[in-house]
Each structure stands twice: as structure tokens, then as C-alpha cells.
């Protein structure tokens, strides 16, 4: 145990007594502004809930003027004004308890750190100043101060001229543009010499600067009679944003003291009209979450008739979030909430008996976050328009109130028939009273609502609007978890013994004759089909492991056809997480079954216009025109029923007997959560039902909003958990389970070998074989769209240094410079008469929604039919040409870490999906200095550069050097940036302390360095 800390240090921060024998190290917690006598006490404090909550809430101080009290952290301030003592104080003073927090200039016992913008306890001031965080900010502040001073005219010398070239067209930039400046003296008797001039980019980096400087004439002495004119030229063949700094060194002829004057140089090479069209309409201001008035009274509206279209016989459990759990989810950091759930709610071991409890709590955590995320779409001061129309099914006039919903077409928010939206007059005095509107109509940009008959609204009325979470999908998953009659280890937690037992009980069957003759030529596909057909009842789940473009859905469909062909009594339930994936299965099956054999079940909320025309005779609508199901007896006669994972509740909900289906097939199983998949399995399977999962755990998994739920495993699909179980090994290992429990498809029918090579080696051990149609995959080989260095390599990386931006309250990023590049690529593809390319051949992928919107706006007049979407929208899809806009181009390496700089661009699964959509040609548009911070992206950029697919400014690193998979490149860039800042700061400090020695060859050396690159620091 260390000696106790000196009382003087604890009180005043220092001790001046040389004979003091106390410990002078300070053990402090800056977040809580507390000092401890020894390391043990500090360690104990750091583990307390108080510290963790304060760490989450923030350390800024706020002042409550009613209670005359200083409170650390905005979160704690909110808790304070909600406390009983505060409300009592407000009641006594006759004022509202809801007051705005005041930021005090001074806090008793604290000193304000200007560099860190925080109040620091006096007792820990010296310790705070020694922290790396403070020193880093101090260095940055010193650099900014030095830079500000360098850009000031001084000692009577004035450098005139504007050197922001603004936005210039690519053709002008390629030929070069000049701006003029001059060096003058404003003090009559003052004389100085221009000793030298240089660009900051000449100090040792690898990219060329587009700027150059020319001093006109031979005179270097400045006086009132003589000025020195000069030109700054920019010349650049590539689009993007470029910056540099002109540094001019002068010597005072009287004192022989040197000084420096700097001028920033900048240019945007691009399309001015794009920048004007797409620039932020308002500055980005982070949207702060505010306390919403609770809905204490909701006047129920009229629910959509479609909700009753399915004749369910079972009662759906409500499954509300338990109040104690809700309180824990609402307080603390993600890590703290995860710890609390593991300690207090979740079973220590997940097995077949604790399975349901575990996942129900994870679903509640996800629902909690979904509800909070919906608050983002709250609308204020919104009108409602009233319209009456004749309802042909009801044969009467029906009145709806229509609400315009921005982003409805983008499903931001997603609103379906049967959802609920609550509204309140902006002038309402009772803030807790709301009217509920049932969603009856969903159009492209607005929804039709029906309220309680007491609701009245005039055209001039304005409303607050809140979107309510449709809990039915979650309730269906809770219902599935409550089915305890099906908790079989052979499905939930399979082991080798389950495979061995099933094999022993199985009967051999003859070789199959494929319905799809191409499968007969594809050994892995044929192996998967035969394994599924020959698997006896009660087998473990069989997995069709389908990497991109290997035909997993084709294999699944063939397996269904063969199962039904071999066994006349077999019945199949086929599911997928999305309607589009389920429709694909049904469309491929409908060629083989009539309307009495195949049924496509839809949820009543499904938009009728989205149903493929081929499925017209395989659906059912009730008398009101809503999607429904035929009588139970008819349902039992169908050989195949296709539905989504969530709507699989229909078959059990209408009374289909457990065990009716001999097989349950789930396509794209990697994109569904376990509870979603269990709606079908736990809801309708019995001890003999076989389950087949098809998907790829290396591609995108389910979308989970809650960080708590992700940390606890809800993002891991059943497919992924079974394939990489941490428990019993071997069931799905390819060297043991191949053909018994899993088959990996290896023939890729989509992409050119060069496009497939990198993701194949990164994610699939190099097993994939390029087997695409040569006429398709080689279509652009030799075309002008490829880089001249290698006309056989159909991947092009467009290097561009742009600017990622945000606007209004949206946290989503966009990059106008990349939009221009994408538009130019598409225009060249469209204009090529030799290698003809239609809009439907092209797709653009962007990881940020704001960029998707900007791209659609820019392409509206060029190629409106080109599909633009997120990575998630393109999983399972393909195009001849894929263009990826990576967006991120942050330069704030000193301030932020890699995760902040790259965001979710650095997500391996997103990367894998994005780069494997292209058949013939893949373009990537991005900032290499940012992308290369991530090891995966650096490896990919190296691959492209070494194969001659790079265009634009070259890489700033050695692309032949082995990539460190552990990363650390962001730290190295930050370190280099700090070194550059420190060098510049020291140069400015030393400039006034030393004489400048004139170098006879200074001008010649400077001219030789003009085009050398530099590492930009901001």
C-alpha cells in the first residue's frame, strides 16, 4: 500500500515543504473531480456505478438557479430537475420546475482549463495538465496560434492577394489558372529582404501539390518604393479539394531578425453546378434528445380493417417491456447496461431450457432502442388535410385525414397499413392528451389516418406528430419464444451425436434427377440437394453455405422440388427475412406448381402493387380486398407455402397442426435474428421436422439498432451461431460435417475473376471459382473505362480528396466531390457507343443515406433509372457495373480515432457485400488517405494499385509493403500530424530568436521543392 498523499497536495495541488515525507503523487478522477489517497482507493472508485454513470453523462458543470446548486453532467442536471427536492423548491417559489441549465463561468473549488474547456478541481490541476489528452490539445492550440500568427502581416510587410481559387472546372484546372499577389511595405522607412519562399507540401510527403509559386523579377528587397509581385498557379488533372500553405521568410535589414508570413492556398476542382445544387441548405447542428411529455391519455383511433384479415385463433401475447428492465435500459452506458442485464436478468448459461428467457430480454433491449429511434422522426407544427372518398369494398364514403411524411418513400420512418400515429394540437393545454390515428392508406409521400369520431381538425390547425412502433413483429417473436413444447437440442444446440443418430435411422435413396439441369453440372449444389433429400426426419439443421453469386437460392429451390418429388406426403414451409427474398423463391417455384399446390402468404399490410405478377394465382384476398388466407382445409392441401419469417406466424396462428410440415426452408437466414427464424421453427415444427438454412455468415447480418442487444448477441443469426459455435465443435466444420450438415457452394456465376479474387481470399479461403458467362464478365475488358496501365483489370479506384459534410440535424454524411465523379463515370458509360450500357446495367452503392439522396438528385437529369441505394439494399442483387461511393474524407486525424473517421465504412461485412455485387466492372470512389487507415481497405487498395487499376492522385504509402492486420495506421497518421504541427510551431517560435542566414542558392532550392507533397493538417 502506498504512503498517504500529502494533505497540502490534496488541498492545494502543490507542497512547498522540502522535508515533507508524505506521498506527493495525486490519485485523481478528473471526471468526478475527486482525489484519493492511494491507488487502491482510486481503483475502487473507478469501478463504482457513480463513476460509470458520470463518465456516461459527461463532466461539464451546470448551475441550477432555483436550488443554487452546481451539478456535473447534463444527464445529472436532468435528473436533478426531475427530483422531488427541486420540484418542492420550484413550488415554493411559484415557478415552473423545468428550467434551462446555466453554464457557470466559475465553479467553487475548480479552475477552468481553457484548452480542454472543462472545470478541473484545484486539487488535481497539476495532474490534469500532465495528462496526454491535455498535452495533445495544448499542442494543437499552440499550432493553431502559431498558424494564426503566421498568416498575419507583420513588421510593415503586407502580402496582398486572395489565394482561394474557389470551384474551378476540370478543364481549366488541367490547363492551369493564375492568381496574382504582391509584397509591399506600409511603413515609409522600413526595408526587408525576401530570403526564401516554399510550400508546406515540400516537407517530405509523397503526393504532388497542384500549386506552384513564381516571384516576378529578380528584386528581393522590399521598401516603400519597391514591391515584389508574384503569381500562384494551380494545375491539376484530377477532381477534388486541394490545400497547401505558402510560407515566405523575410529578414529585417536593420535587426537581421527573420520572420515568416504564410498564406493558405486552396482550390476545389469540380462542377460548380453540382456544388450549388447539393451544398448544405443549413449548417449541421446535432439534434439533441429532449425529454418528451409523456402520453398520459390516448384517444384510440379506428384501426385498419386489414388488421383483422387473418383469422387467427390464438391470442397474441402483449409482451411489454417489464418496468424494472425498462429502467435499467434507460440508465447508464452500453457497457453498464450490458453488465446489469448479465448480472440481473440473463441466465448464466444459454441452453434449451434458458433459451427463451435469454432472447426475450435481448428483444426487449432492441425494442427499447427502436422506440427511442422513432423519436427522431417527431414532427412539429404540421397540418392535416381532410378528404372523403368512396370505398368500393365498404360501399360508402370514407373520410381520412392525410399526413405528409418526409422520407416515407425511403422508409424513414417506415409506415405500413395498420400502424398507429398519434397527434396533438400545438395549442393543446393538456400536454399528455393525444389522439391516435390508425393508418388506413399509405401513398408515396403521405398516409391516410382515421381518428376517433371526437377528433376535429380544420385546415389552419397545426399538430405535433409522433410515430408509434408497430409491436406486432416483436410480439410474434415473443410468442415463438413462449412455445416451450419445441426446445430440441438437435435444432437449437446440435452435436455430433445428433448427426450420427439420424444417419443410423436414415434409409438410403437412389440418385436424384435434377429439375434444373445446370445443377447436375455443379457438384457442390448437387451434393447439397442430395444431402437434404436423403436426410431422415429429426436431422440437425442443414446449412447451404452460399458465398456471393454461387446460387444458394437456386439450390434451395431445387432442394424443395426434389423433397416433394421423392415424397408425395412431404409438405414444405419456405421463408425468408424479406418479402423480396420470399417472392424470389415463390416466383421460381410457381413454374412447377399449380394454384392448388403453391400458396404465397402475405401480411395484410403488404402493398398490392409490390406483388409480382407471376404470383397472381397463388395469393388470396378476402371480400374487402385484403391479403388473407383460404380456409384451413385448403391451407393443409398446399404442398408449399411461402412467407416471410415474421408472417410464418400465420400458419400456426390459424390452427395448422404442429408437425404438418416435413421441412422448413429459410433462405437468406444470415439476415434474420434467431427469434425471427424461431417463429417458423418453434411455432410449427415437431420432433420430425427437418430445417434447412441457406445463407452466408460473411455477408450482412440482421439489422440491430440497440448496442446492448448487439453486445449480447442478437446480431448473430442462427446460421452464424451454428457454423461458429464456441461449444461443441465439428457439426458444421467442412472437414467433418461436409455433406452431412453443411455444403459450401464454391462456383461463382456472377463476377469477373479479378473482381472475385480479393473478397475470395479475404473471406472464403480462396475456395471460390469464377464460372460466370464470359460474354458478361469480360464485357468491359479492353474498354476506355479501364485504366490504361491494365486494360484487362475491370476494377478502377478513383482517388479523390473531397469533403464529407452534414446538414441540418441529420448525422448522415455526404460528399459532393464524390457525387461529381460518380456522375461523370455514369455519363461516360452512357455515352459509349461501342460498349453499350443502359441505366439498368448500373447501380451505385453508398454507405450513408444522405449520400444516396444527393446522388439521386444529381443523377435525376442524367440517368434517373440508375438504382442508388445502401449496401443493405443490394445484398442478393447484382449489376454489370457497380459504383461505390465511400463518402468519408475527414482530415481530423489529430482529434478523432479510426472509428470516428471512417464510421461504418470500415465494416468487413459491408465491404464484402459492396464489392461482390459487380459482374463486369467495379468502380470505387474514395479518399485513399482515409480508407487506407483500415487494414482491410488498405489491402484492397494495394491490390488495385499493384494491378494497374488506380486513377487520380497516387497512394502515399508503399502498396507493396505487407499490411499489418492489427491496424494502427490511424495512430501513425495522428503521430505524424502532431510532429508536423510541432515542427511548424517551433519554427515560428525560433524565427524571432535567431538571425536568418542568407543562402545564395535559396531561390533555386525553393523552386525545386515547389511540387513536393505534404501531409495536410487541420
TrEMBL record:
<keyword id="KW-0863">Zinc-finger</keyword>
<dbReference type="InterPro" id="IPR041677">
    <property type="entry name" value="DNA2/NAM7_AAA_11"/>
</dbReference>
<keyword id="KW-0963">Cytoplasm</keyword>
<dbReference type="InterPro" id="IPR013087">
    <property type="entry name" value="Znf_C2H2_type"/>
</dbReference>
<dbReference type="InterPro" id="IPR027417">
    <property type="entry name" value="P-loop_NTPase"/>
</dbReference>
<dbReference type="GO" id="GO:0031047">
    <property type="term" value="P:regulatory ncRNA-mediated gene silencing"/>
</dbReference>
<dbReference type="Pfam" id="PF21634">
    <property type="entry name" value="MOV-10_beta-barrel"/>
</dbReference>
<dbReference type="Pfam" id="PF13086">
    <property type="entry name" value="AAA_11"/>
</dbReference>
<keyword id="KW-0378">Hydrolase</keyword>
<dbReference type="GO" id="GO:0005524">
    <property type="term" value="F:ATP binding"/>
</dbReference>
<protein>
    <recommendedName>
        <fullName>RNA helicase</fullName>
        <ecNumber>3.6.4.13</ecNumber>
    </recommendedName>
</protein>
<feature type="region of interest" description="Disordered">
    <location>
        <begin position="996"/>
        <end position="1018"/>
    </location>
</feature>
<feature type="compositionally biased region" description="Acidic residues">
    <location>
        <begin position="996"/>
        <end position="1008"/>
    </location>
</feature>
<dbReference type="GO" id="GO:0032574">
    <property type="term" value="F:5'-3' RNA helicase activity"/>
</dbReference>
<dbReference type="InterPro" id="IPR036236">
    <property type="entry name" value="Znf_C2H2_sf"/>
</dbReference>
<dbReference type="InterPro" id="IPR049080">
    <property type="entry name" value="MOV-10-like_beta-barrel"/>
</dbReference>
<dbReference type="GO" id="GO:0036464">
    <property type="term" value="C:cytoplasmic ribonucleoprotein granule"/>
</dbReference>
<keyword id="KW-0547">Nucleotide-binding</keyword>
<dbReference type="Pfam" id="PF13087">
    <property type="entry name" value="AAA_12"/>
</dbReference>
<dbReference type="InterPro" id="IPR041679">
    <property type="entry name" value="DNA2/NAM7-like_C"/>
</dbReference>
<dbReference type="GO" id="GO:0008270">
    <property type="term" value="F:zinc ion binding"/>
</dbReference>
<dbReference type="InterPro" id="IPR026122">
    <property type="entry name" value="MOV-10/SDE3_DEXXQ/H-box"/>
</dbReference>
<keyword id="KW-0943">RNA-mediated gene silencing</keyword>
<keyword id="KW-0347">Helicase</keyword>
<keyword id="KW-0067">ATP-binding</keyword>
<dbReference type="InterPro" id="IPR047187">
    <property type="entry name" value="SF1_C_Upf1"/>
</dbReference>
<feature type="domain" description="C2H2-type">
    <location>
        <begin position="27"/>
        <end position="56"/>
    </location>
</feature>
<keyword id="KW-0694">RNA-binding</keyword>
<feature type="compositionally biased region" description="Basic and acidic residues">
    <location>
        <begin position="1009"/>
        <end position="1018"/>
    </location>
</feature>
<dbReference type="InterPro" id="IPR003604">
    <property type="entry name" value="Matrin/U1-like-C_Znf_C2H2"/>
</dbReference>
<comment type="similarity">
    <text>Belongs to the DNA2/NAM7 helicase family. SDE3 subfamily.</text>
</comment>
<dbReference type="GO" id="GO:0016787">
    <property type="term" value="F:hydrolase activity"/>
</dbReference>
<dbReference type="GO" id="GO:0003723">
    <property type="term" value="F:RNA binding"/>
</dbReference>
<keyword id="KW-0479">Metal-binding</keyword>
<keyword id="KW-0862">Zinc</keyword>
Amino acid at each position: 500500500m502506498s504512503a498517504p498523499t500529502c494533505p497540502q497536495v490534496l488541498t492545494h495541488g502543490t507542497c512547498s515543504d522540502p522535508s515533507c515525507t508524505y506521498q506527493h503523487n495525486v490519485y485523481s478522477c478528473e471526471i468526478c473531480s475527486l482525489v484519493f489517497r492511494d491507488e487502491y482507493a482510486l481503483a475502487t472508485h473507478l469501478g463504482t456505478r457513480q463513476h460509470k454513470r458520470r463518465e456516461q453523462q459527461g463532466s461539464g458543470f451546470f448551475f441550477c438557479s432555483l436550488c443554487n446548486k452546481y451539478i456535473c453532467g447534463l444527464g445529472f442536471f436532468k435528473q436533478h430537475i426531475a427530483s422531488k427536492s427541486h420540484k418542492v423548491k420550484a413550488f415554493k417559489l411559484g415557478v415552473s420546475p423545468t428550467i434551462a441549465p446555466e453554464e457557470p463561468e466559475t465553479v467553487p473549488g475548480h479552475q477552468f482549463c481553457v484548452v480542454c474547456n472543462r472545470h478541473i478541481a484545484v486539487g488535481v490541476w497539476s495532474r490534469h495538465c500532465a495528462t496526454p489528452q491535455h498535452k495533445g490539445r495544448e499542442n494543437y492550440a499552440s499550432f493553431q496560434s502559431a498558424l494564426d500568427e503566421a498568416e498575419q502581416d507583420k513588421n510593415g510587410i503586407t502580402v496582398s492577394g486572395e489565394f482561394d481559387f474557389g470551384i474551378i472546372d476540370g478543364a481549366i484546372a488541367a490547363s492551369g489558372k493564375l492568381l496574382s499577389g504582391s509584397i509591399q511595405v506600409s511603413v515609409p522607412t522600413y526595408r526587408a529582404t525576401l530570403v526564401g519562399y516554399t510550400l508546406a507540401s515540400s516537407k517530405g510527403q509523397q503526393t504532388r501539390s497542384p500549386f506552384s509559386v513564381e516571384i516576378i523579377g529578380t528584386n528581393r528587397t522590399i521598401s516603400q518604393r519597391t514591391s515584389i509581385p508574384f503569381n500562384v498557379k494551380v494545375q491539376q488533372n484530377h477532381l477534388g479539394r486541394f490545400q497547401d500553405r505558402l510560407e515566405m521568410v523575410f529578414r529585417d535589414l536593420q535587426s537581421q531578425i527573420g520572420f515568416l508570413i504564410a498564406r493558405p492556398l486552396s482550390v476545389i476542382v469540380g462542377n460548380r453546378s453540382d456544388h450549388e445544387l447539393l451544398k448544405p441548405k443549413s449548417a449541421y447542428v446535432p439534434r439533441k434528445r429532449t425529454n418528451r411529455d409523456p402520453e398520459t391519455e390516448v384517444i384510440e383511433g379506428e384501426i385498419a380493417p386489414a388488421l383483422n384479415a387473418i383469422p387467427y385463433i390464438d391470442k397474441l401475447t402483449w409482451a411489454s417491456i417489464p418496468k424494472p428492465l425498462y429502467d435499467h435500459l434507460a440508465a447508464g452506458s452500453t457497457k453498464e447496461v450490458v453488465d446489469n442485464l448479465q448480472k440481473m436478468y440473463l441466465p448464466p448459461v444459454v441452453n434449451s431450457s434458458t433459451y427463451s428467457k435469454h432472447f426475450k430480454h435481448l428483444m426487449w433491449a432492441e425494442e427499447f432502442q427502436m422506440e427511442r429511434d422513432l423519436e427522431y422522426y417527431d414532427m412539429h407544427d404540421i397540418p392535416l388535410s381532410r378528404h372523403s372518398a368512396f370505398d368500393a369494398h365498404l360501399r360508402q364514403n370514407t373520410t381520412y385525414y392525410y399526413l405528409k411524411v418526409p422520407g416515407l418513400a425511403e422508409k424513414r420512418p417506415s409506415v405500413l397499413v395498420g400502424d398507429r400515429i398519434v397527434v396533438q394540437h400545438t395549442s393543446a393545454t393538456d400536454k399528455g392528451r393525444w389522439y391516435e390515428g390508425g393508418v388506413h392508406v399509405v401513398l408515396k409521400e403521405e398516409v391516410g389516418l382515421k381518428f376517433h369520431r371526437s377528433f376535429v381538425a380544420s385546415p389552419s390547425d397545426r399538430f405535433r406528430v409522433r410515430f408509434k412502433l408497430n409491436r406486432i413483429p416483436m410480439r410474434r417473436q415473443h410468442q415463438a419464444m413462449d412455445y416451450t413444447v419445441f426446445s430440441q437440442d438437435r435444432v437449437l444446440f446440435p452435436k455430433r451425436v445428433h448427426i450420427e443418430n439420424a444417419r443410423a435411422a436414415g434409409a438410403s435413396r437412389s440418385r436424384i434427377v435434377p429439375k434444373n439441369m445446370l445443377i447436375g453440372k455443379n457438384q457442390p449444389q448437387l451434393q447439397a440437394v442430395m444431402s437434404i433429400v436423403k436426410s431422415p426426419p429429426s436431422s440437425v439443421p442443414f446449412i447451404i453455405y452460399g458465398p456471393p453469386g454461387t446460387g444458394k437460392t437456386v439450390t434451395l429451390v431445387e432442394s424443395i422440388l426434389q423433397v416433394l418429388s421423392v415424397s408425395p406426403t412431404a409438405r414444405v414451409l419456405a421463408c425468408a427475412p424479406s418479402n423480396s427474398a420470399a417472392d424470389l423463391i415463390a416466383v421460381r417455384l410457381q413454374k412447377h406448381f399449380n394454384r392448388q399446390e403453391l400458396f404465397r402468404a402475405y401480411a395484410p399490410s403488404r402493398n398490392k402493387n409490390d406483388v409480382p405478377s407471376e404470383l397472381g394465382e397463388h395469393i388470396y384476398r378476402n371480400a374487402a380486398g385484403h391479403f388473407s388466407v383460404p380456409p384451413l382445409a385448403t391451407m393443409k392441401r398446399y404442398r408449399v407455402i411461402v412467407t416471410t419469417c415474421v408472417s410464418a406466424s400465420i400458419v400456426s396462428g390459424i390452427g395448422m397442426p404442429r408437425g404438418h410440415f416435413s421441412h422448413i426452408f429459410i433462405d437468406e437466414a444470415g439476415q434474420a435474428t434467431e427469434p425471427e427464424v424461431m417463429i417458423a421453427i418453434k411455432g410449427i415444427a415437431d420432433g420430425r421436422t427437418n430445417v434447412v438454412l441457406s445463407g452466408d455468415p460473411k455477408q450482412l447480418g440482421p439489422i440491430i439498432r440497440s448496442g446492448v442487444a448487439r453486445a449480447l448477441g442478437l446480431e448473430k443469426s442462427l446460421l452464424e451461431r451454428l457454423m461458429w459455435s464456441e461449444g461443441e465443435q465439428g457439426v458444421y466444420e467442412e472437414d467433418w460435417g461436409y455433406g452431412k450438415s453443411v455444403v459450401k457452394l464454391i462456383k461463382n456465376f456472377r463476377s469477373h475473376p479479378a473482381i472475385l479474387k480479393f473478397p475470395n481470399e479475404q473471406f472464403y479461403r480462396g475456395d471460390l471459382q469464377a464460372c460466370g458467362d464470359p460474354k458478361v464478365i469480360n464485357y468491359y475488358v479492353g474498354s476506355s473505362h479501364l485504366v490504361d496501365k491494365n486494360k484487362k483489370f475491370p476494377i478502377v479506384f478513383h482517388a479523390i480528396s473531397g469533403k464529407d459534410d452534414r446538414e441540418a440535424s441529420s448525422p448522415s454524411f455526404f460528399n459532393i466531390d464524390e457525387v461529381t465523379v460518380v456522375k461523370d463515370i455514369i455519363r461516360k458509360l452512357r455515352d459509349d457507343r461501342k460498349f453499350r450500357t443502359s441505366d439498368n446495367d448500373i447501380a451505385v452503392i453508398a454507405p450513408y443515406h444522405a449520400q444516396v439522396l444527393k446522388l439521386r438528385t444529381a443523377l435525376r437529369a442524367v440517368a434517373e433509372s440508375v438504382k442508388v441505394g445502401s449496401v443493405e439494399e443490394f445484398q442478393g442483387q447484382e449489376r454489370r457495373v457497380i459504383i461505390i461511393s465511400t463518402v468519408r474524407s475527414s482530415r481530423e486525424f489529430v482529434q478523432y480515432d479510426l472509428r470516428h473517421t471512417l464510421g461504418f465504412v470500415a465494416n468487413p461485412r459491408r465491404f464484402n457485400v459492396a464489392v461482390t455485387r459487380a459482374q463486369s466492372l467495379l468502380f470505387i470512389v474514395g479518399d485513399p488517405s482515409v480508407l487506407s487507415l483500415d487494414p482491410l481497405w488498405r489491402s484492397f487498395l494495394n491490390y488495385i494499385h499493384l494491378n494497374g487499376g488506380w486513377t487520380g492522385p497516387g497512394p502515399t504509402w508503399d502498396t507493396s509493403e505487407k499490411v499489418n492486420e492489427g491496424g494502427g495506421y490511424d495512430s501513425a497518421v495522428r503521430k505524424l500530424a502532431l510532429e508536423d504541427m510541432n515542427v511548424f510551431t517551433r519554427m515560428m517560435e525560433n524565427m524571432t530568436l535567431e538571425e536568418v542566414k542568407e543562402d545564395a542558392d535559396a531561390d533555386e532550392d525553393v523552386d525545386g521543392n515547389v511540387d513536393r507533397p505534404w501531409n495536410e493538417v487541420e
